[in-house]
Each structure stands twice: as C-alpha cells, then as structure tokens.
Amino acid sequence: MKSVLILETTDSETSPLAGDLRRIGVHVIGVVTCENLAQDAVLLAPDAVVAMDPQPSERLFAAVARLESARPVPVAVFTDDVRIELIERAFSSGIHAWVIRGYKPDRLRSVLQLAQVRFRRESEHRKCLAELTGRLEERKLVDRAKGLLMSHQGMDEEHAFRALRDAAMQGKQRLGQVAQRLIEAARCAEAVNRSGQLRMLSQRLVKLHALASMNTGSASAEALTRESMSRLERNLSVLSELVSMATFGEYLDAALEAWSGLKSFLRASPCGQAQNASMLQIDAAAERLLEAAERLTDALEAAGPMKNMQMVNLAGRQRMLAQRVAKMALLRQIAPQGVAADPAQMQATVDAFEQAMAALRRSPLTSADGRAMLRTAQDAWKNLLQSSQLAASPQGRLQIAQSSEALLEIFDSMTEGYEHNLKVLVG
Question: If DSSP codes are grouped into helix, strand and coil, which group holds residue 337?
Fold first, then answer.
C-alpha cells in the first residue's frame, strides 16, 4: 500500500488519520469530500481510500458507490455506529473494511491490507462472472445464428454450427463475433428487402388499377390490390420495429406519409372505377412513395454491416422495375400524355433492368439455383417487353399481367435467397 486518499465526512474534521497514516509510511495524496471522491480518485489514482466517520449517512454510501462505478479501489471505513443494517449497506456500496469502534494507529496497516485483499478477491470474482456471462451470451448468439441458418437455409444443427465455425476460422474471429455479425446482417438484410418491397408495391398497385380500369382480369386485380395494400402496410409496420428510428426515422416517416397519400387516392377510386384523371393522381402519388422507398432502401443498404448487402437491394429492385414497365405500358394506353407514358422513361427502366440482370449473372454470390431462376426470368422479361407493345389488345394486357407477376414471383424468391445467403451475411 503506497498511497491513499482520505475521505473527509461531516464528522471527521478532527480525524487523526492523516498523521497516523504518514507515521506508518503511507503517502497521503489528498483529502477529499464525498461529492468529489469519484472525480478525484480518477485524477489522483490512489491505492486505497480511507475514512473515519463516527455516524455514517447515505452521503458516504452514495459517494463510495459512485467511486465503485468510476474507479474501483479498496475502501476502509472506521466508525462508531454499531447498527447491524449498516454492515450490509457498507459492503453492498463497495466498502471492503468496515471497522466498528476499533480505530488504533497500530491497526491501520492490517486494516488496509484486509481491504486490499477483499478488493482483490472481489475483482477476481467479477472478472470470472464477466467471463461466464460473456460465454453464456456468446452461446445464446451462436444458438440464434444457428437457428437462422437452420430455418432459412434448411441446414441441420451440426451443419449450421460447422458453417459458423468455418466462417469464424476464415475471418480469424471468435465464433460469437461471427454469430453477432450474422444476426445483425440478417436484420439489416430483412429491412432492405422489406423496404425494397415498398418500391415494387407502389408500381404494382398502379398496374393493377390500370388493368381493372381496362376490364382486364378485374376480379383478380381487385384481389391482388387488397393483398398488395395489406403487404405494404405490414412491411411498414415491421420496418418501424426493425430499423433505428433515430437513424432512419426521417426516411420511414416520408414513406409513411407518401403511402397515406396514395392510399387516400386508391380508396377514392376503387379498382375498375378509376378514370384517366384519377389514374394520373394515383400514379403521381405512387411515384412519391417510390422515391421515399428508394431513399429508405439505399440508406439501409449503405448503413448495413456487409458490403454484399447490395445484392439484396439489386435483386429486390428488379421486382419494382418489372412492375414499372408493366405500369408504363398500360398507362400509355390510358393517358398517353402522362409522364409515365414517356418513351425515354420506359427505355431508362428497361436499361436498368437489363444492366441488373447482367450484374446478377456475373456475381459469384448467385447460386446454381439462382442462375436457373435468372434464365426463367429472362424468358418472362422477353414476354413482358413483347406484350408491352400489344397493350391496346385484351390479350396483350393479359400477357402483361401474367409476365409481370411471374417476374415478381421469381425476384421475390431470388431476393429472399440473397437475404439469407451465408456468404452475403458474413462476407
């Protein structure tokens, strides 16, 4: 024991502590009040704190508790108070030697040694407890990560654990770190996927209204409209729980506001009853939702823990682009002067879809099943482009509906595949 701080309380102004400590060779580096104990202990770094307090109050225990949180050190207190309940209060606050009516100069060294030994034992116990707690938390993380792999990738428990272990070895990380990373990435990937669905649904709803207004599969369009509205609201609800509102709240609020506007137009013009003017209003509102959803999705991807998260966004965006092409082809017949009928916009959408198709084919993260899906998608895409030139005819509109829904189903499945791909999630 080389140095101590003396804790001065209201009743210890005439304490002989300072002189007695110096006489036994202990360096007194200062006398502090209860209010400044934690701050001064951090600055002066004593080996121990000693107090003489005949009638301790809550002020003493609160000061020691703050010290325990800021910079734990051995604490010894000499007191005249014989109340039994104070003994428990003393040790729970962080006092290691509580000496009742036993102050003597020749006992100082042994009391300080006692406080030091107890402090060291408590520190060792805390360290062991922290290690055990850490291992337990790590095991929980690993179990959660295994559960994700088992439920989404069809692995058994042994295979899932082996996949996590191999990823940890390749990344030279602890198993718990990889598990934590996978869980966080899975959460982010789900958010990107769900946000991306908002983009698609904004365009699909206009497409379905256009089909119904042109008497093409009206009953089916009405059912799909109800399903799309329900799906959109469900995704917004889940996103409000998945994402950090402090970080992404502004983006999500914009999407909610845009959806509220679109929903009001949809309810004002039910399927099959929309006129040209109302269709243009619905489309304009859908474009506002699309823009808000794009900003939210891009922000979520950029903030994601994995660089490969872009694959979830890229595949998910194909759903929107296919619906957008179908929507534009139909609106060109309903409102040829509308913005959606602009040939330049149609061409830009087609180019974006085909560029993404090429990127998905090139990606090493695309599985054999994924490549087979892309081949099927290419056929459906060809059908959509051909039928978009025949939107004036009932058969052409029916083919637009069928091929766009086929593409939606394919890219829903592909996006979900990327969302749960181990290589995407853990890099």
Answer: coil
